[in-house]
Each structure stands twice: as structure tokens, then as C-alpha cells.
Amino acid sequence: MRRPIVAGNWKMNKTSAEAVKLAEELKPLLADVKGVDIVLCPPFTSLEATYKTIRGANLLLGAQDMFWEESGAYTGEISAKMLLTSGCKYVILGHSERRTYFGETNQTVNKKLKAALRAGLVPIVCVGERREEREAGVTQQIVEDHVAGAFEGIRAEQASEVVIAYEPVWAIGTGLTATPEQAQQVHAFIRQILTKLYNSNVGQQVRIQYGGSIKPDNATALFSQPDIDGGLVGGASLTASSFAEIVKSV
Ligand code: PEP
């Protein structure tokens, strides 16, 4: 039985004070929720303040990216150990915005995935096709490249710990959501890829979130698909009431 996971990707939003306020608002709204990993992913500058606010509550902390080296002359970068010691358990890797604006590739995602696992973070690896790729009928090829590229050289025991977020790029921040059937189809396909790369245990154990314009009114239909284990939520995670409603619908 896979434990559902819902994560809020706050992207480049919220100062520390605003992050603390949002986390404070979420605590009572989600206090009764059990059996779900609820992850807040604020910007780096708000990690520690958010962690202090949620420590002891049923909320976990995640970061939005990291670098693969442990330390050194990498101006502007953040290591896995820095994230761990700031209270993070999770880290998002390979988000489409990082692939689009910051040159992230399957190779860099793979390096980051290995470093995150080595350090003991739980990676959330984002995969998904662009609109023109879906229209060209190459969704499966793109998703397979993303998954196989990210997991290159990762052993089966480690692979089972990784969370995958299927995020069709055309659905991120656009208000367009994949239909539950479209999303389910790709999630099932990702399980097939993992089964081919490893074995059916890994295929069945890996948690796969859907991401792309999840809102309170479409979350239930998406989360009730058999291979969808929760969501990675952008815009709707910036408001306590809508994120709480989405978490509760899992
Ligand atoms: C995301 O950033 O991962 C995301 C899914 O954003 P949104 O929910 O705003 O589409």
C-alpha cells in the first residue's frame, strides 16, 4: 500500500514572514489529517523559519532544488547537507521550470538524484512532456527518457524510495489540467518503465504524484485514479484553504 503524498511547491513566492504565516495557517487546518505525507516546499530563504513553525506538526519540509556537489566553489548553489540541516526531508528535482530556464537536463537530474539519495533526502523527480510533444504523439518517449535518464545507475532499493511527479508541462500554471484518464494512463506507463528498469516491486512501490493546475475542484477525480498517489501543487498551495482542501481530498 503506497502512502499518499501531497506537496506544495511555493516556487519563488513568500518572504520568510509570509512563509511562516502560511505554515501557521495550515497547521490547524491539517491537524486531523493522518496517513498522508504533507510536504511544504518554500524558497531556500524560508526553509529554516518554516521548519521552526511546523516542527512537531504533521507537516514535512522540502526544498525546490539542490546541487550535486557536497561543498566548494559553486557560487549560488545549495548542497543536500545544507537542506538536511535546515530541516528538509524532501527535495524537488528536475522541475520543468528548472529545465526550461536554468538548463536542467536528464544528466544533471541524475547527478542530483544520486547526491540526494546519498545524503538521505527523499527526492521528488519531476517528469513530463511539453504541449508540442503531446501533440506530436511522443509523450511516452519523453517521459521514458526523463525517467530512465534520472534513474541511470540508481539501485533498486534506492529507486523504491524516490517519488516521481508526473507534470505535463502544458498543465503547469496554465489552468489546463490533464483529465484523470490522461494522467492515469501516463502514471501506469511510468510503472511499466520502472518495472522494465528494475522489477515489478519497484514499479508498484514508487509513489507517483500528479502535478499541473490541481485545484480543490479537480483533485478528488485525479487522486481517485489507481496509479495516482497524490499531487505536487503549485499555485493552489499558496493559499492555506485551497491547499488544505486538496490535501484532504487525497
Ligand atoms: C508545479 O509547479 O509543480 C505545479 C504543478 O504548478 P501549478 O499547480 O500551479 O500548475
In words, what does this structure look like?
There is one protein chain. The chain contains twelve helices and eight strands. With 250 residues, it is of the alpha/beta class. It has an eight-stranded parallel barrel with strand order 1-2-3-4-5-6-7-8, surrounded by six helices. Strand 2, helix 2 and strand 3 (60-63) form a beta-alpha-beta unit. Helix 11 runs parallel beside helix 12. It is globular and about 45 Å long. The two termini are 14 Å apart. The mean pLDDT is 98. The site of phosphoenolpyruvate has 13 residues, from strand 8.
Brief summary:
The protein has 250 residues and is an alpha/beta fold. It has helices at 16-30, 47-54, 80-84, 96-101, 106-119, 131-135, 139-151, 156-159, 180-197, 200-205, 216-223, 240-249, and strands at residues 5-9, 37-41, 60-63, 90-93, 122-127, 163-166, 207-211, 230-233.
Topology:
Blueprint: E1 5-9, H1 16-30, E2 37-41, H2 47-54, E3 60-63, H3 80-84, E4 90-93, H4 96-101, H5 106-119, E5 122-127, H6 131-135, H7 139-151, H8 156-159, E6 163-166, H9 180-197, H10 200-205, E7 207-211, H11 216-223, E8 230-233, H12 240-249
Parallel strand pairs: 1-2, 1-8, 2-3, 3-4, 4-5, 5-6, 6-7, 7-8
